[in-house]
Write a structure and sequence with these properties.
The protein has about 270 residues and is α/β, with parallel strands linked by helices. It has a single domain, classed as TIM Barrel (Alpha-Beta Barrel), CATH 3.20.20. It is built from ten helices and eight strands. It has helices spanning about 20-25, 40-50, 65-70, 90-105, 125-145, 165-175, 190-195, 200-205, 230-240, 260-265; strands at about 5, 30-35, 55-60, 110, 150, 180-185, 210-215, 245-250. It has an eight-stranded parallel barrel with strand order 1-2-3-4-5-6-7-8, surrounded by five helices. Strand 1 (about 5), helix 1 (about 20-25) and strand 2 form a beta-alpha-beta unit. It is globular and about 45 Å long.
């Protein structure tokens, strides 16, 4: 049976952020993921998790500088990660250090390190040596803390210029780095937009053991999984058949999330799987 984690950065927007932990637990979730925790004290987040019987299963490393991360300010269009950006290695390393502090405090076993954008005047291939070297270093630091590092292919419609877009590229990078705690974060929303053929991609990649976390949303508007062109009941059943034991992050924007109780009303798709 797939295990679902609420992405409380996108879900429950009708509530203040710290109140979303309780809302997710009341709706039957046993785990949460989020984008960036850094604007909130570690102790406060840990208390919300404990108080609601929730596991923290994933969050992202800082997408830019530490000051921006601690302010929760991600308006800079370049704030899409630093792992693959030449010249920002020191910034990347300090961000990993901060992220691992939060991972330890929240008992979170996995951390997504965003690749960043292809820089002006460069090609994707020009940035791969930086990306691979940074991931190799980060995987060593994370392994010492008992944390897995995730890399995620993201579609170019939502994030123009993002360095990593395809599943095969991500798996090739995992092979190149060669760290056992470096895994692919397979988001079915992004994969459908970039590549499609999701059932065959699942059959190809889940048995490798290199998929460390999964996410999903309806396509094309990133709403609930029962809204859009994908038939998620089939995909969820297939994932179960393939014996995936990890978490499925509900990284979608509820269609009626701005209304009181709107996120909870949209969870009819989840009830057969609880």
């Amino acid at each position: 049976m797939p295990q679902f984690a609420a992405n409380i950065s996108l879900m429950y927007p009708e509530l203040d952020f710290l109140d979303r932990f309780e809302a997710a637990a009341q709706d039957g979730f046993k785990a949460v993921e989020l984008l960036f925790p850094y604007a909130y004290p570690k102790q406060e987040l840990a208390a919300r998790l404990r108080g609601n019987g929730l596991q923290q299963v994933l969050f992202n490393g800082p997408p830019a500088g530490l000051e921006q991360a601690l302010r929760g300010d991600y308006q800079d269009p370049q704030a899409r990660g630093t792992a693959g950006v030449p010249g920002r290695e020191a910034e990347f390393r300090s961000g990993v250090a901060l992220a691992l502090e939060y991972a330890q405090a929240l008992e979170c076993p996995r951390l997504h390190l965003m690749a960043g954008l292809v820089q002006p005047g460069l090609q994707r291939a020009d940035q791969l040596p930086t990306y691979i070297a940074n991931l190799r270093w980060a995987a060593l630091q994370a392994a010492a803390a008992g944390v897995d590092v995730m890399i995620e292919p993201i579609n170019l419609r939502d994030v123009p210029g993002f360095l990593l877009n395809r599943q095969d590229h991500a798996h090739a990078i995992v092979d190149e780095v060669g760290a056992p705690n470096l895994k692919v974060q397979m988001d079915l929303y992004h994969c459908q937009i970039v590549e499609g053929d999701l059932a065959m991609k699942l059959r190809q990649y889940l048995p490798t053991g290199r998929v460390g976390h999964m996410q999903f949303a309806g396509v094309p508007q990133r709403h609930e999984p029962d809204i859009g062109e994908l038939h998620y009941p089939y995909l969820f059943s297939l994932i179960d058949q393939l014996d995936y034991r990890g978490w499925m992050g509900c990284e979608y924007r509820p269609l009626h999330g701005g209304e009181p109780g709107g996120t909870s009303r949209g969870l009819g798709w989840l009830k057969p799987w609880l």
